[in-house]
Automatic annotation (TrEMBL):
<dbReference type="InterPro" id="IPR006195">
    <property type="entry name" value="aa-tRNA-synth_II"/>
</dbReference>
<keyword id="KW-0547">Nucleotide-binding</keyword>
<protein>
    <recommendedName>
        <fullName>Aspartate--ammonia ligase</fullName>
        <ecNumber>6.3.1.1</ecNumber>
    </recommendedName>
</protein>
<dbReference type="Pfam" id="PF03590">
    <property type="entry name" value="AsnA"/>
</dbReference>
<dbReference type="GO" id="GO:0140096">
    <property type="term" value="F:catalytic activity, acting on a protein"/>
</dbReference>
<keyword id="KW-0067">ATP-binding</keyword>
<keyword id="KW-0436">Ligase</keyword>
<keyword id="KW-0028">Amino-acid biosynthesis</keyword>
<dbReference type="GO" id="GO:0016740">
    <property type="term" value="F:transferase activity"/>
</dbReference>
<feature type="domain" description="Aminoacyl-transfer RNA synthetases class-II family profile">
    <location>
        <begin position="112"/>
        <end position="321"/>
    </location>
</feature>
<comment type="pathway">
    <text>Amino-acid biosynthesis; L-asparagine biosynthesis; L-asparagine from L-aspartate (ammonia route): step 1/1.</text>
</comment>
<comment type="similarity">
    <text>Belongs to the class-II aminoacyl-tRNA synthetase family. AsnA subfamily.</text>
</comment>
<dbReference type="InterPro" id="IPR004618">
    <property type="entry name" value="AsnA"/>
</dbReference>
<dbReference type="GO" id="GO:0070981">
    <property type="term" value="P:L-asparagine biosynthetic process"/>
</dbReference>
<keyword id="KW-0963">Cytoplasm</keyword>
<dbReference type="GO" id="GO:0005829">
    <property type="term" value="C:cytosol"/>
</dbReference>
<keyword id="KW-0061">Asparagine biosynthesis</keyword>
Length: 336
């Protein structure tokens, strides 16, 4: 079911469609070059689809249906990726990356069960990145240091885009605040997890919410996470306050990846131990893959944020319910 978020003030895009497309390319080019330099990443080519029996696809919360199709020549069924979280770790080993080095790629996905609104689309485009770390670097300190590096790149990108377009004013604070999902629950006990995110973003302007996936003291998780890529004790989301919609806007989900112990614990927690028999998961259990940290950074979300757009459909071509088209037309929002 779609939901339209009304802009906080009467909305008018300062860029027409052609100017918007030019700005999107400028922004994407700048950000990915700066990110690669900051994190020591090499750009690689990645798959659009994978074999489901490999265990490489992201099963998200376990209920979302992947888009699948059969290949005429082989008769095999393939799945469009939900994300490349597990494929990237496999690629680190295959391509011979060493500790301190990593990769990034364009990830394009179709999430057919996504409920759409101003910031959610069934089409997902991200920079997916992954970096080799040593066992002793599987710490909160490593995670926070990496988050600060990414936030530095966001600040650099903001400075660049505001220098190119006079109508854009900087939103980001000087530093990013770290809060665990448990601290968030205790800080805003009467709110839902999503409402807590919005309040934290309003208060701190940029926040990294850590430890997502496992149950909180209330007995419920802050949000769902697949059990077989992020270590739920060493992961999190980057959110920024977005005044045009008065929301906390998630720009990135990331984390230190599971080791053998974390994977087995989380599979048991999610009651899906059968996944331990899939090739990728078996490789983690056998400690055949490098330890790594990685995540995804939303390309359209980033463009929407930095170009002051009120709807993600202004910076990507997707499909929307008739009601969404009507709401956007009434609000002066032009969808690509």
């Amino acid at each position: 079911m779609s939901f339209f978020i009304q802009p906080t003030v009467p909305y008018h895009s300062s860029l027409d469609i052609r100017q918007t497309e030019i700005a999107i390319k400028q922004l994407k080019d700048f950000f990915q070059v700066a990110l690669a330099k900051k994190l020591r990443l090499t750009r690689v080519t990645a798959p659009l689809f994978v074999c489901p029996e490999t265990g490489l696809n992201d099963n998200l919360n376990g209920i979302e249906r992947p888009v699948s199709f059969d290949v005429m020549e082989t008769g095999r069924v393939m799945e469009i990726v939900h994300s490349l979280a597990k494929w990237k770790r496999h690629a680190l080993k295959r391509y011979g990356f060493e500790p301190g080095e990593g990769l990034y790629t364009d990830m394009n996905a179709i999430r057919r069960d996504e409920e759409t609104d101003n910031i959610h689309s069934i089409y997902v485009d991200q920079w997916d990145w992954e970096k080799v770390i040593r066992r002793e670097e599987r710490t909160m300190e490593t995670l926070q240091r990496t988050v600060r590096s990414i936030f530095d790149v966001l600040k650099e990108t903001e400075a660049f885009i505001t220098s190119q377009y006079g109508y854009i004013q900087p939103f980001l604070p000087e530093t990013i605040t770290f809060l665990s999902s448990q601290e968030l629950e205790e800080r805003y006990p009467q709110l839902t997890p999503k409402e807590r995110e919005h309040e934290a973003a309003r208060e701190f302007k940029a926040v990294f919410i850590t430890q997502i996936g496992g149950p909180l003291r209330s007995g419920k998780p802050h949000d769902g996470r697949a059990p077989d890529y992020d270590d739920w004790t060493l992961n999190g989301d980057i959110l920024v306050y977005y005044p045009i919609l008065d929301i906390g806007l998630e720009l990135s989900s990331m984390g230190i990846r599971v080791d053998r112990a974390a994977l087995l614990h989380q599979l048991e927690e999610k009651q899906c131990m059968e996944r331990a028999q899939l090739p990728f998961q078996k490789a983690v259990i056998a400690e055949e893959l490098p330890y790594s940290i990685g995540g995804g950074i939303g390309q359209s979300r980033l463009c929407m944020f930095f170009l002051n757009k009120a709807h993600i459909g202004e910076v990507q071509a997707s499909i929307w319910p008739d009601s969404m088209y009507a709401e956007c037309e009434r609000s002066g929002i032009f969808l690509l």
